[in-house]
Write a structure and sequence with these properties.
This is Phosphoribosylformylglycinamidine synthase, PurS subunit / Phosphoribosylformylglycinamidine synthase, synthetase subunit. Pfam families: AIRS, AIRS_C, FGAR-AT_linker, PurS. InterPro entries: PRibForGlyAmidine_synth_PurL (IPR010074), PurL_linker (IPR041609), PurM-like_C_dom (IPR010918), PurM-like_C_sf (IPR036676), PurM-like_N (IPR016188), PurM-like_N_sf (IPR036921), PurS (IPR003850), PurS-like_sf (IPR036604). One of its GO terms (molecular function) is phosphoribosylformylglycinamidine synthase activity. With 693 residues, the chain is of the alpha+beta class. Among the domains are: 162 residues, Mth169, Chain: A; 78 residues, 60s Ribosomal Protein L30, Chain: A (2-Layer Sandwich), CATH 3.30.1330.10. It is 33% helix and 25% strand. It has 25 helices and 27 strands. The strands form six sheets. Strands 16-18-15-19-17-20-21 form a seven-stranded mixed β-sheet. It has a six-stranded antiparallel β-sheet with strand order 3-1-2-5-4-6. A hairpin with a 4-residue loop joins strand 10 and strand 11. Helix 13 runs parallel beside helix 14 and helix 14 packs parallel to helix 17. The longest helix has 19 residues. The chain is globular. The chain starts with a strand and ends with a helix.
């Protein structure tokens, strides 16, 4: 049975979410809206009585001082009825999309002594007051209240099967892809239809490999290659060859750049050869010396495409991903602070000026800021520094940089998978969320991306990652594992594959913990469900390792073994579904060849008219989005948690002036600290990107 619980603020209690939603609606130009009220909805699957459900609501879900509630099993709203001319819109997650509240709510219910609640799904009601047409309601729903990638508008009455649809058991079906005889046109079609985002050259190399093996590939093998060769995982544009044409001294010149990454950033780092660089361009994050006992690691990563489609989830999983990179560096570092750089289109752009398929910049901005705030604050990691820039050129694809800094014992930098080590996956369960996220990074955003690549977007669960972090650091200090990496882009495909690259690995996919039944072997392997890490553990240490994670209420499961086969081998219930040579997987892809032409823009020196009084111009500059105060954003982040913030984001007598950098001390009581800053000038980049960098 599904019990429906509705919780609403009592009359006279300020509804902050409702007021924020109202302002967003007014920003769309719908000024006839007079009030927005919100109602939290919990759907509890349980055979408990109404009295037991009432105990759950009173003890856990509601605040008796400020909120009221109702309980029903009829599947329709009752708390705000009758509407009396108001409009009700209820928004819920699609079946299969991770509900961030579900896991922590289930844990809380068990903690108060109720054991027979099997699932929780949430929704939110918006009660809209004002003169609104059907067209107005449709615009508000689509533009403000929901993101159709992950959510839907609820229709009443709600059936139990709508909330928790039954998923058929997966029937094993090994899919063989007809590749050996495929024409070039067919190869391109296979890549596009499968969202592999592989070029024709790459598909032809794959075809040649399997012709040598004298067999067609299994679908899982193609997916694995696509993940491994994706832009996100392999950075193939940076590693490729670029024929660069430019004009110098009035003459056109051409030069060839072989591996942009190695000839610029890597080359400069190697030439400088600083003694304090411990690990560079090798692990999940760079590592430098801090003091005699510890090292510092730093990682920054973009999450632009996902944030363009689902701003909250994209930024949420962006910061979650770099935190796991810190945890996956060496044998694991403890995250001590976060930073970020965001670039959006102006938040006051007119709807008519937006390209088809794009979200409004203000919605993108608020969603991204909320996503980073939600994850960092709940993880207990301070966000101490950042930057916020605006320009219309970011309307189709925002720039979302998320970064994190960690500290680790100096003897925990190196890791090595050993022969016979067990493959252990810990943290969140695996579902269909995030499939093709890695390959999605290799494609261009179009007005169809929100439909075609909807599965590439995920929602994070920072509470689950906090528990993983706590358990991992305990296991690290006990020396219970030999290597670790995060399960990010590409999912298990990327994490397990990279760890087994030198030695070889065998995985039994049916052992992977699932969120729900019905996933195929390929979906299990490439899913990018969040909050997962992969460890290599010696058999002699496995019991102690599992006990540590169980003590922190974190699921840990042995799914395979590292073996000296030089192959990636996957099985599902004893059926082989993948067998690839590691050499081909990690060194067999053709290098990307691109052409670049730089035309220096005409530089026109601005003419500044002479005026005796520049007060009005000064006010214009100060009110520009790139200059005005960003306090509204900065104050949403907790920059004091962990107690190590020395120089805060705001300084001065009244703590209201933005600081050029933040300073934190990783070790409380120590006089040694770290300065964190950033620099970006998008206007300079429009003149010459090279000199901006």
């Amino acid at each position: 049975m599904i019990w429906r619980v509705e919780i609403k603020n009592k009359d006279g209690v300020f509804d902050s979410h409702g007021e924020s939603t109202k302002r967003s609606i007014v920003d769309l130009g719908l000024e006839t809206i007079t009030q927005v009220e919100t109602v939290l909805v919990y759907n509890l699957e349980t055979d408990s009585s109404k009295e037991v459900v009432s105990k759950i609501v009173q003890d856990l879900l509601s605040d008796p001082i400020t909120q009221k509630y109702s309980i029903t099993n009829e599947g329709k709203p009752i708390l705000v009825m009758p509407l009396k001319g108001r409009h009700l819109v209820e928004i819920a997650y699609h079946p299969g999309v991770m509900d961030p509240v579900e896991r922590s709510t289930l844990k809380g219910i068990k903690d108060i002594g109720v054991k027979n609640v099997s699932s929780v799904r949430t929704a939110i009601q918006y009660i809209l007051s004002g003169k609104l047409t059907k067209s107005n309601l449709s615009t508000i729903t689509d533009r403000i209240l929901l993101n159709k990638l992950i959510q839907h508008k609820v229709s009443f009455p709600v059936k139990d099967s709508d909330i928790l649809p039954k998923v058929a058991e997966h029937q094993f079906n090994r899919i063989i892809v007809d590749l050996l005889k495929a024409s070039d046109r067919m190869l391109v079609k296979l890549s596009k239809d499968g969202q592999l985002f592989l070029s024709l050259d790459e598909m032809k190399v794959i075809q040649k490999y399997f012709r040598k093996l004298k067999r067609n590939p299994i679908d899982c093998e193609l997916e694995t290659i696509a993940q491994t060769w994706s832009e996100h995982c392999f950075h193939k544009t940076f590693r490729g060859t670029i024929q660069y044409t430019y004009v110098e001294g009035g003459k056109k010149k051409t030069s060839t750049i072989k591996n942009l990454l190695k000839t610029t950033i890597v080359k400069a780092t190697e030439e400088l050869n600083k003694p304090w660089c411990v690990s560079v361009f090798h692990d999940n994050a760079g590592v430098i010396k801090f003091d005699k006992e510890s090292n510092i690691c730093f990682k920054v990563e973009t999450h632009n495409h996902p944030s363009a489609l689902e701003p909250f989830g994209g930024a949420n999983t962006g910061i979650g991903g770099v935190l796991r990179d810190i945890l996956g560096t060496g044998l694991g570092a403890k995250p001590i602070c976060n930073t970020d750089v965001f670039c959006f289109a102006p938040p006051d752009m007119k709807l008519k000026d937006l390209p088809k398929g794009t979200l409004h910049p203000k919605r993108v901005m608020k969603g991204v800021v909320s996503g980073v705030r939600d994850y960092g604050n709940k993880m207990g990691i301070p966000t101490v520094n950042g930057s916020l820039q605006f320009d219309e050129k970011f309307v189709g694809n925002p720039l979302v940089y998320c970064g994190s800094i960690g500290i680790m014992p100096k003897d925990k930098v190196k890791k090595k998978v050993g022969r016979g080590d067990l493959v252990v996956v810990v943290g969140g369960k695996t579902g269909r969320d995030g499939i093709h996220g890695a390959t999605f990074s290799s494609g261009e955003l179009t007005d169809e991306s929100e439909v075609v690549s909807s599965g590439a977007v995920q929602i994070g669960d920072p509470i689950a990652e906090k528990k993983v972090m706590d358990a991992q650091l305990l296991a690290r200090d006990k020396g219970l594992y030999t290597a670790v990496t995060d399960c990010g882009a590409g999912g298990l495909s990327s994490a397990v594959g990279e760890m087994g690259e030198i030695l070889g690995v065998r995985v039994n996919l049916e052992k992977v913990p699932l969120k729900y039944h019905g996933l195929s072997y390929t979906e299990i392997w490439i899913s990018e469900s969040q909050e997962r890490m992969v460890f290599s553990v010696k058999p002699s240490q496995i019991k102690k390792f599992l006990d540590v994670f169980e003590s922190e209420n974190v699921e840990a499961t042995v799914i395979g073994e590292f073996i000296p086969s030089k192959k990636l081998e996957l099985f599902f219930d004893g059926n082989k579904v993948c067998s690839l040579d590691m050499d081909f997987l990690y060194d067999g892809n053709p290098r990307v060849a691109k052409k670049a032409l730089f035309k220096a823009p005409k530089k026109i020196n601005p003419r500044v008219p002479k005026k005796e009084d520049l007060t009005s111009k000064l006010k214009e500059v100060l009110s520009h989005y790139n200059v005005c105060s960003k306090e509204w954003v900065v104050r949403q982040y907790d920059h004091e948690v962990q107690g190590g913030s020395i120089v805060k984001p705001f300084v001065g007598v009244k703590n209201d002036g933005p600081s050029d950098a933040a300073v934190i001390t990783p070790k409380l009581g120590s006089s040694k600290g770290i300065a964190v800053s950033n620099g970006i000038n998008i206007r300079y980049g429009m003149i010459d990107p090279y000199w901006m960098a």
